[in-house]
Each structure stands twice: as C-alpha cells, then as structure tokens.
Request: fold
Amino acid sequence: MAKTNQKCVRLSDRVAKYIESYRGENFSQKLENYVLDTEERREQLVMDWERLNAEIQDKRQELARLRSKMQKVSEADRRFGALVTALLELVDS
Reply:
C-alpha cells in the first residue's frame, strides 16, 4: 500500500501508550494497524453491543418477574404463618 499522506500529530500520553502497545514494527505502522482494525471491526462491535444490550434488557425483565413472584410467595408465607400460628393455638387449647 502506497504511503502518500504525511501528517504531524500531537497525542496525549494515554493515546500514545495505546498505539505503542499495538502490533507493528514502528509508530506509523502501529497507528495504521490500530485504525484499520478498529474501523474494520466497527460494524461487528456495534452488532455485538446491540445484542448484549438486548440480552441485558431480557435479563432485567426476567429479574423483575422473579422479584414479583418472590414478593407473592413471601406474602403467602406471611399469611400462612399467621394461619399456622392460629391453628396451633386452637390445637393447644
């Protein structure tokens, strides 16, 4: 690939660290690989993000249903507890 564009850029230490740790033989190659890999994976990353968000939403709805069921069971347990106590008092009398 012909390298016809020459640029001078200023980068934060943080960004330079990311680029320097990327694959490649020199800074220019590392930067190019980083940009190409990121851009070529963008569509897949967005699809993964959307799929994961949908799964999270499904799990939140499932958790809400479970919480509702737990509240109903807890209320029934509380009511039956009172009934059992009353029955025991009747039997003991």
The chain has a mean pLDDT of 93. Helices lie at 13-20, 27-92. Residues 63 and 70 are 10 Å apart (CA to CA).
